[in-house]
Amino acid sequence: MGESEVIEPLSEKPDAGKPVFQDVPKWYHRWFRTPKELRELGVVGINMRNARFLLPNNPRRLYDLVDNKLRTKALAEAEGMTVAETYGVLRTPHDANIVEKILKGKEAFVIKPTRGSGGKGIMVIDKKVGKNYIKPSGTEVTPGDLKNHVSNILAGLFSLGGKRDYALIEYRVQPATLLTDMSFQGAPDIRVVMLHGYPVMAMLRASTKESDGRSNLHQGAVGVGIDIATGMSVRAIHHGKPITYHPDLGISLIGVQMPDWETILEMAVTCQEMTGLGYLGVDIMIDENKGPLMIEVNARPGLAIQMANGIGLLKRLEPIVIEHKRNPGADRAAKIAYSKKHFRAKLPAPRGEG
User: Fold this and answer.
1) 3-state class of 138 per DSSP?
2) How far from the centroid of its chain's Cα atoms is residue 5's Cα?
3) What architecture is domain 85-171?
4) Positive or negative: CA dihedral 171, 74, 58, 194
5) Nearest by Cα to 231 from 268, 190, 261
6) Which residues make Cβ contacts (< 8 Å) with residue 153, sequence separation at least 6?
7) Percentage of the chain modeled with pLDDT above 90
8) What local confidence, expressed as pLDDT, does residue 187 receive?
9) What pLDDT band is residue 349 in, cutting at 50, 70 and 90?
10) Cα–Cα distance between 200 and 49 in angstroms, integer?
11) CA 23: distance to chain centroid?
12) Global pTM?
């Protein structure tokens, strides 16, 4: 597949609740490919990611800067980036017992482990009705459920390595209206994968009813590939299969222009600079009033972004390795300009046109 090739979205809308699948290359649906075929497609697997890009570029001493969300937020704020407001940090069993007191006056919020990964342990609350809290899916959470969830976070149930953790309570992002239309109640986020400070690939992760307001693809969220050069959505997948429309909302996911794209790229490159990591993923949300917010940085970004974009990561990582050796002192503007020039996708018609 040529890097500029894009699969055109289908023009027919789906029946309610039924995703429409795109006509895609057969490699997406085959369980087994030979090493030669994978190399030709430029697909990066976990072993290659770790051996060629992660381990050589991410010193172990730097991991805690991103594995600990509190440290990451502090770094981002020092760089002048906007982050989600912290309502509280729960550190002890006593804190779990008084979580409602800490949340007094806050009806919408997010509770997450400070050392969690893969979306595990994140609880999103949209509102409070009576004594109970309501999740994006409509599920009620009792005060006892809330306390138990915090206790599980503190015990390390969701943390990397199963070590004891803290529970972070944050502002519940109010996503930009354009993105709300693409997500089932939850707040979508944008992930940008970076190598040596160059934006390599990007996708929007939008929640579904199945994912319960969370944007993790393994929990049933939708992945939407984004053109690095323009910020326009070019492809979409659900459970690894390409789709054109959101499975719950029936709205087209293709040809949507992401707001504040230049700011998003700037934030992603800044995250690389502030952490010192060579290979990383940066997660950003776009708030209706606050604009782009840096949510977290991941030192071990997953590989499903290749499926969302229909392009093997190797086709973009290898040129960056060469460019970085050729021009090791490139500044932020030069890196963004390089990525825009060399990783531009063939764009579909904007949503609502054609």
Assistant:
1) coil
2) 23
3) 2-Layer Sandwich (3.30)
4) positive
5) 261
6) 90, 111, 112, 113, 116, 121, 159, 165, 166, 167
7) 73
8) 81
9) confident
10) 14
11) 25
12) 0.85
Residues of the chain with CATH 3.30.470.20: 26-66+176-342
CA-CA distance, 24 to 9, in Å (whole number)? 10
Question: What pLDDT does 259 receive?
Answer: 94
3-state class (DSSP) for residue 71:
helix
Of the two residues 238 and 17, the one the predictor is more confident about is 238
Quote the tokens at residue 41.
């497609």
Contacts of 81 (CB under 8 A, 6+ apart): 267, 270, 271, 294
Nearest to 175 by CA among 232, 216, 215: 215
**For the chain, where do the domains classified as CATH 3.30.1490.20 start and end?**
85-171
CATH of domain 26-66+176-342: 3.30.470.20
Segment among 176-180, 245-249, 254-258 with least mean pLDDT: 176-180
